[in-house]
Design goal:
This protein is α/β, with parallel strands linked by helices and 510 residues long. It has 3 domains: 175 residues, Leucine-rich repeat, LRR (right-handed beta-alpha superhelix); 205 residues, Ribonuclease Inhibitor (Leucine-rich repeat, LRR (right-handed beta-alpha superhelix), Alpha-Beta Horseshoe), CATH 3.80.10.10; 46 residues. 27% of the residues lie in helices and 19% in strands. The protein has 13 helices and 19 strands. The strands form 4 sheets. Strands 1, 2, 3, 4, 5, 6, 7, 8 and 9 form a 9-stranded mixed β-sheet that branches. A 6-stranded mixed β-sheet has the order 12-13-14-15-16-17, covered by helices on one side. A hairpin with a 2-residue loop joins strand 12 and strand 13. It binds 2-acetamido-2-deoxy-beta-D-glucopyranose (12 copies). The site of one 2-acetamido-2-deoxy-beta-D-glucopyranose has 4 residues, from loops.
């Protein structure tokens, strides 16, 4: 039982812990969302020409003609740079057409249009036929229609930063880029593409592709390209800044997960270690979650989903750096395997809808010292061993979910668990869902009179017994005194003393 003094001590300790926590708050920000430069860079060596309006310039195939804004023509919309290049700025489709008609010659092979506002870019126009480098960047292109002509010699295509979406890039009926057999550099970065330009990268040709800044491209397309690395020879420019969308409908949050494509390489290795989870055939799925600082080193934190697998025990031998584990909807009865070394980095544990009876086996595990989220709803907990959790819950941040359990309620529950729930209600948002068995209602609604009457009854009863015993003693003494008095005066023993057998002690008395 908790005494008033004990509670005061608890409160003091809690405030101390809070004060310490506040002091170290800045230190605890260790999570990192994005890799910086740790990953191997696979940048292509595209020798773009920039910030040099006049100097001589090689026009090798594959080179991209690119000028910067400060070189924009001042009076006109377009200007010729050397004999083979044209540079335009800030045009709409009408002005572009007009200006190109004037500046483009038979000899023009390079074109850069900066900030074009075009509703429909018709790529089948004959003026584009002779180009080897075509760039329409930093503008707004509503739609790309038509198809590059079959003999197009474009080696470099830059459509970076045009607010393009896939719907406007690849109309369902045809693919605008399918004829670009000489393309070696494609810069489609900083758009909003959601479909991978598969036709471009599935040819037997070396190609550099920049798809950074398009966060909704499906990971499976990148995966395919990376797997067939040999034949397609695709190099991803800005590899470490290129991200893809993983559709997690069947795994985790019923949502897409945007992740660096380097995680796909990680995923491959992960798939192997995922198969080694015991028990064998547990058929769990493993996905990289995010980059996380663990033991001072950046690792890709791993999510493991073993839910609804008919497991009878907690899985062990989890992949390295497993940070989240979902084993909901199984038939697990014990948390003992959480002490397995592979649980070392687990911070989120979901064991909802199982048959776990207690959490005492978590005592002393690394998990219980470090967890951020522990959900053990709808299990068969009979009690809450509050001391196992209390240390962790004294810090801010960790969440515990325990609703849907029906624990055994007695006076101890009312005196210990109920105040514990109320003290930690910020960490246990579903505290009202912890109920008592036998339809006794929520634990937080327990009243002393409901469960704690037995002790008072017992005390009352003790007094009755003592009273009764005193009464019997008094009667006994009076009877003995009476017997003695009768024996002394009348010389005989009254009933029942006269019927009692002689005992050795009687002998002594005489
Ligand atoms: C882009 O061009 C349009 C005209 O077509 C102009 O209004 C706009 O200011 C330009 N944007 C930038 C960033 O210069
Ligand atoms: C195209 O280039 C050739 C030789 O390189 C040159 O003689 C001709 O004048 C150029 N034509 C134009 C329109 O610049
Ligand atoms: C494609 O490039 C090759 C050299 O790599 C060249 O011989 C060929 O003419 C080019 N094709 C076109 C259509 O420009
Ligand atoms: C394409 O255009 C963008 C935006 O102007 C530029 O940053 C990038 O370097 C260009 N890419 C190539 C390959 O020239
Ligand atoms: C990008 O395109 C969408 C339509 O696809 C348009 O609503 C939006 O305003 C554009 N954003 C910019 C910055 O032009
Ligand atoms: C890019 O596409 C996504 C998903 O289609 C959309 O939510 C987002 O608003 C788009 N961004 C821009 C700038 O158009
Ligand atoms: C392609 O394979 C080479 C070695 O064969 C490797 O160095 C490179 O990283 C691979 N590229 C990708 C994108 O996987
Ligand atoms: C990659 O190329 C090597 C030899 O160059 C070959 O042995 C291997 O099977 C190829 N892999 C794929 C996936 O094509
Ligand atoms: C865990 O798995 C169950 C069953 O697949 C799912 O309903 C639940 O949302 C998952 N929990 C989390 C936190 O993803
Ligand atoms: C990993 O396994 C999942 C299925 O469990 C599969 O969808 C995915 O493509 C695999 N990833 C790699 C890189 O092998
Ligand atoms: C593993 O799970 C997938 C779906 O998650 C299922 O299609 C497959 O049959 C399962 N395999 C085994 C051996 O249970
Ligand atoms: C596991 O539990 C479910 C209900 O949660 C039950 O239907 C199923 O029969 C149990 N499986 C085993 C093997 O006990």
């Amino acid at each position: 039982m908790i005494t008033a003094g004990g509670r005061v001590v608890d409160q003091v300790m809690l405030w101390c812990a809070l004060a310490c926590f506040a002091a170290h708050l800045q230190l605890s920000e260790t999570r990192m969302e994005e890799p910086d430069s740790k990953y191997k860079s696979m940048e292509a060596h595209t020798q773009s020409i920039e910030e040099q309006p006049e100097p001589p310039r090689e026009t090798k195939l594959g080179n991209c003609f690119h000028m910067s804004r400060k070189d924009c023509p001042i009076d006109t919309k377009c200007r010729r740079i050397e004999s083979d290049s044209v540079f335009c700025c800030d045009v709409d489709s009408f002005r572009l057409k007009e200006a190109l008609a004037i500046t483009m010659t038979q000899n023009t092979t390079n074109l850069h249009v900066l900030n074009a506002t075009i509703d429909e870019l018709v790529v089948s126009q004959s003026i584009f036929r002779r180009l080897t480098s075509m760039a329409l960047t930093d503008g707004n292109i509503g739609k790309i229609v038509g198809q590059f002509p079959k003999i197009a010699s474009i080696a470099c295509l830059n459509i970076s930063n045009n607010n393009l979406s896939s719907a406007t890039l690849q109309p369902p009926d045809h693919r605008p880029f399918s004829n670009l057999f000489n393309l070696t550099v494609l810069d489609a970065s900083r758009n909003n593409l959601t479909k991978f330009p598969v036709s471009l990268v599935q040819s037997n040709r070396k190609i550099s592709v920049d798809l950074s800044g398009n966060d909704y491209l499906p990971c499976k397309d990148f995966l395919k390209v990376m797997e067939t690395n040999n034949s397609s020879l695709v190099t991803f420019v800005h590899y470490d800044k290129t991200k893809c969308a993983l559709d997690l409908r069947f795994n985790w949050f019923k949502d897409v997960l945007i992740m660096p494509i380097d995680h796909l390489r990680v995923q491959k290795e992960l798939n192997i270690s995922c198969r080694n989870i015991r028990p064998a055939n547990s058929n769990c799925t493993c996905v990289p979650d995010r980059l996380e600082l663990m033991d001072g080193v950046n690792h890709v934190a791993v999510q493991v989903d073993c839910s609804q697998r008919n497991l009878k025990e907690m899985p062990t031998n989890l992949p390295p750096n497993t940070a989240k584990l979902n084993v909901s909807y199984n038939n697990i009865t014990s948390l003992q395997p959480v002490s397995d070394p592979s649980y070392e980095h687990v911070r989120h544990l979901m064991v909802d809808n199982n048959d776990i009876a207690n959490i005492v086996e978590l005592e002393g595990t690394k998990f219980i010292d470090n967890f951020m989220f522990f959900s053990i709803t709808h299990n068969k907990l009979k009690t809450i061993h509050t001391y196992v959790l209390s240390n962790r819950l004294e810090t801010m941040g960790p969440l515990l979910l325990i609703s849907g359990n029906k624990i055994h309620c007695d006076c101890n529950t009312e005196k210990v668990i109920k105040p514990w729930l109320l003290e930690n209600l910020k960490s246990i948002p579903d505290f009202k869902g912890l109920r008592c068995e036998d339809n006794m209602g929520a634990v937080v609604d327990l009243r002393e009179s409901q469960v704690c009457h037995t002790p008072r009854d017992w005390t009352d009863y003790i007094y009755y017994i003592i009273g009764l015993e005193v009464l019997i003693l008094v009667l006994l003494i009076s009877k003995v005194s009476y017997d003695y008095w009768v024996f002394k005066t009348a010389g005989y023993l009254p009933w029942p003393a006269n019927k009692m057998p002689r005992l050795p002690c009687d002998w002594l008395c005489e």
